[in-house]
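Team,

Forwarding the record for the chain on the shared tracking sheet. I've put the sequence and predicted structure together so nobody has to dig through attachments.
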Amino acid sequence: MIVLNVTFMVKPESKEEFFATLNPLIEGTRTEDGNLLYELHVSLEDEFKFVLVEHFADQEAVDIHNESEHFKKYAPKLGDFCSEITAQKLVLAD
C-alpha cells in the first residue's frame, strides 16, 4: 500500500475556490480502482491547514491516478489557492 499525505496551506481569501476545485478531484478519485482512501482533514490548530490523506493499493494505482482526467484537470489549479503545498509518500514499515 502507498500512502500520500498532501498538506495544503490555503490562502484565507481562497478557501471557497479551493474546495470548489478539490471536491471534483476527491469525487473522481474515490471511483478509481486501486484507491483505498481519499479523505480531506483540517487542522485543529489552523483552519486554513488541510491534509489530504490518500491510500492506494500500489504504485500502479498511484500512476493511474496521476494520469486520470480529473487529476490533470483539477490538481494543477490547487496551487493558485495555497501559500504552500507539501507531500509525503509513505509505505508500511516492516
